[in-house]
C-alpha cells in the first residue's frame, strides 16, 4: 500500500470520531498548517491546540469526505466542513493539500472560500458565539 493511501486511510479514520489527538496523529511533529483567516500553525502541538479549540467552540463539527487523490508524496482531499446549527447545518466546500514525508504530513494547506463561510455564519446567529470563541482561541495557539 502506498504512503498516500496509508495517510488517507488514517486521516479518514481520525475524522470518524474526531478528537484533536486523532486529527493531528497524521502530522509530523514539525508540521506547518496553513488555512484561510488564520496565521500558520507550527508543529503538531499547535495543531492539536487549534483543533481542540475548534471542537470545543463548535460542538459537532466534522467533515464529509467526497474524494481524494494522491501520488509522489502529495495528497488532496476534497470534503465539506459540517457545522451543526440547531435546525440545520452549515456546509463549506474545502480542499486540503498535504505534503508527505513517508506516511505523515509535514505541510497542510486548506482551501475554502472565507467569504462564503462568513456569509453563511451571518445568517446563523446560533453559531456566532462558537465561531468568535474559536477565532479568539486560534489567536492564542499561534
Describe this structure in words.
The chain has a single domain (3-140), classed as Nuclear Transport Factor 2, Chain: A, CATH 3.10.450.50. It is built from five helices and six strands; from the N terminus they run H-H-E-E-H-E-E-E-E-H-H. The protein has helices at 3-14, 20-24, 44-57, 114-122, 128-140; strands spanning 27-34, 41-42, 62-71, 74-85, 88-101, 104-111. The protein has a six-stranded mixed sheet with strand order 2-1-6-5-4-3. Helix 3 packs antiparallel against helix 5 (128-140). The N and C termini lie far apart (35 Å).
Q: Work out the number of β strands.
A: 6
For the record, the CATH class is Alpha Beta
SSE-based structural type: alpha+beta
Counting DSSP H or I runs of 4 or more residues, the number of helices is 5
Computed over alpha carbons, the radius of gyration is: 15 Å
Give the total of domains.
1
User: In which order are the strands of the major sheet placed?
Assistant: 2-1-6-5-4-3
Unreliable parts: none
Q: Estimate what percentage of residues fall within beta strands.
A: 35-45%
Helical amount = 25-40%
Q: What's the short story on this structure?
A:
With 142 residues, the chain is α+β, with helices and mostly antiparallel strands. The protein has a single domain, classed as Nuclear Transport Factor 2, Chain: A (Roll), CATH 3.10.450.50.
Secondary structure elements and pairings:
Elements: H1 3-14, H2 20-24, E1 27-34, E2 41-42, H3 44-57, E3 62-71, E4 74-85, E5 88-101, E6 104-111, H4 114-122, H5 128-140
Parallel strand pairs: 1-6
Antiparallel strand pairs: 1-2, 3-4, 4-5, 5-6
Amino acid at each position: 500500500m502506498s504512503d498516500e493511501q496509508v495517510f488517507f486511510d488514517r486521516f479518514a479514520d481520525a475524522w470518524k470520531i474526531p478528537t484533536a489527538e486523532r486529527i493531528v496523529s497524521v502530522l509530523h511533529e514539525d508540521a506547518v498548517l496553513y488555512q484561510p483567516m488564520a496565521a500558520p500553525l507550527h508543529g503538531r502541538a499547535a495543531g492539536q491546540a487549534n483543533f481542540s479549540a475548534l471542537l470545543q467552540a463548535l460542538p459537532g463539527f466534522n467533515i464529509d469526505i467526497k474524494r481524494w487523490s494522491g501520488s509522489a508524496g502529495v495528497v488532496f482531499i476534497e470534503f465539506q466542513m459540517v457545522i451543526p446549527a440547531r435546525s440545520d447545518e452549515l456546509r463549506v466546500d474545502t480542499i486540503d493539500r498535504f505534503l508527505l514525508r513517508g506516511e505523515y504530513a509535514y505541510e497542510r494547506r486548506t482551501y475554502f472560500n472565507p467569504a462564503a463561510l462568513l456569509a453563511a455564519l451571518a445568517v446563523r446567529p446560533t453559531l456566532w458565539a462558537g465561531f468568535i470563541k474559536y477565532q479568539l482561541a486560534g489567536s492564542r495557539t499561534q
